[in-house]
Design goal:
FAD/NAD(P)-binding domain; 421 residues; alpha+beta; 2 domains; 29% strand; nine-stranded mixed beta sheet; 10 helices; D-Amino Acid Oxidase, Chain A, domain 2
């Protein structure tokens, strides 16, 4: 076990580590939660796992002098932007590598495919979302954590979780305990914390992999995100990056995903040209295979719905609380919404209730229920609808896209919910 402390760690008289909040996880959601609770005046222990042997290291500049672009990107909405701004993280991002999304262009399948468009002007906002690299976001969060008060960063592997009326206790493999009034499971889709709490899940594999890679495009993208709902090839999204660059998120059926991963990036660009050439022109791989960062990745997709997002002195946030299909690009935004609601409820609690009190956590569960359920139903329903290879269904879904495109009030309501406003 190793410890990095940004202020003096809290210990009991017998030497045990104790804090108001213990957060298990090492992603952007875990780090943001640590900053949020710290800035709200709570002592925080952030438990991160040891680095995996052979894990990727951040690549340096390419031969052209530009740092390689991370293939993992997020479309952050206004809820995420406001939270990160309040924590002084947004201003620490490298904004030269952040692209606004000013419009979305969605197309159905077939020669007579439907069409649906959204734009910032119609949504009465400055921009719809911001495309941010995972590495850019985590670098800014790491910098903020170095200066955070009352944050104790511990590297170790948890092996046991127990709860009592006084709080939660995590035991590490070396026997060291961490005690807290509130334990947050921010440890992803395969959450160890969730398993320790015996919280069951409903699991549905989509039998798809999200293929992610970056390309330069011949024509300017004008900050428009393009998305194609196809039946045989899955769902393809090209998100704008600064300059004439785009980030691919292709939710491809497993067989197609295996084929793509065995092909070159040039062959992948040719495949994409079938859909993108009219709007974006010729696509070229943004970084060659010899660079240290993997130029393409495949991420298995599944719907994960836990039967609860709280347990005694425990709350789940991020993918530990809900994993959804990436077709709407809001998985990360749901996690930021968890943090916003949890902080609001904890800060507004009665003085005689601790931050891990069951009534406080019940309010958090109620607050998140509608937002999460709507996103689960929307993403799962759209995936089922556009995955159906039946001609009558194809006709109806394309007609539906066209009809929705002609209903500005309905479109505005949909996009307002997606923006998190």
């Amino acid at each position: 076990m190793t410890t990095q402390t940004s202020s003096s760690a809290q210990y009991r008289a017998d030497g045990r580590r104790q804090s108001d909040v213990c957060i298990v996880g090492n992603g952007a959601i875990a780090k943001t939660a640590a900053l949020g609770f710290s800035q709200a005046g709570h002592s925080v222990t952030l438990l991160v796992p040891p680095a995996r042997p052979g894990a990727e290291e951040t690549a340096g500049a390419s031969a052209g002098g530009e740092k390689p672009w991370d293939v993992r990107v997020y479309a952050l909405n206004h809820t995420a932007q406001k939270l990160l701004s309040s924590l002084k993280v947004w201003g620490a991002l490298d904004m030269t590598r952040v692209a606004p999304v000013d419009a979305m262009d969605i197309k159905g399948d077939g020669e007579q495919g439907g069409h649906l468009g959204f734009d910032a002007f119609g949504a009465h906002t400055g921009t719809l979302a911001w495309i941010v690299e995972d590495s850019n976001l985590n670098t800014a969060l790491d910098a903020a954590l170095r200066f955070a008060q009352n944050v104790d960063i511990v590297t170790g592997r948890a092996c046991r979780l127990s709860c009592s009326p006084l709080g939660a206790k995590v035991e590490l493999e070396d026997g060291a305990p961490i005690e807290a009034q509130l334990l947050l499971g921010a440890d992803g889709r395969e959450s160890w914390v969730r398993g320790q709490c015996d919280i069951g899940i409903d699991y549905r594999s989509y039998h798809q992999h999200a293929i992610v890679a970056n390309f330069s495009c011949e024509k300017p993208h004008h900050n428009v995100a393009h998305q194609w709902f196809t039946c045989k090839d899955g769902i393809i999204a090209l998100l704008p990056l600064p300059g004439n660059k785009v980030s691919l998120v292709w939710s491809a059926p497993e067989t197609l995903a295996d084929t793509i991963m065995n092909e070159s990036l040039g062959e992948l660009a040719i495949r994409l040209g079938e859909y993108s050439e009219t709007q974006l022109g010729l696509l070229k791989p943004l970084q060659p295979h010899e660079l240290p960062l993997a130029p393409v990745k495949a991420i298995p997709l599944a719907l994960v719905r836990p039967h609860a997002i709280t347990a005694p002195h425990v709350a789940l946030i991020g993918d530990a609380a809900h994993a959804v299909h990436p077709l709407a690009g809001h998985g990360m935004n749901l996690g930021f919404g968890d943090i916003v609601d949890l902080l609001r409820i904890v800060n507004a609690r009665e003085t005689h209730h601790g931050i891990g009190d069951e009534r406080v956590l019940a309010r958090y569960a109620r607050a998140r229920k509608e937002d999460v359920l709507l996103m689960q139903l929307a993403t799962d329903g759209l995936e089922r609808l556009f995955g159906a290879n039946l001609e009558p269904v194809r006709v109806v879904r394309n007609l539906g896209l066209n009809l929705l495109d002609k209903l500005p009030l309905v479109k505005r309501r949909l996009i307002s919910h997606a923006l998190g406003k």
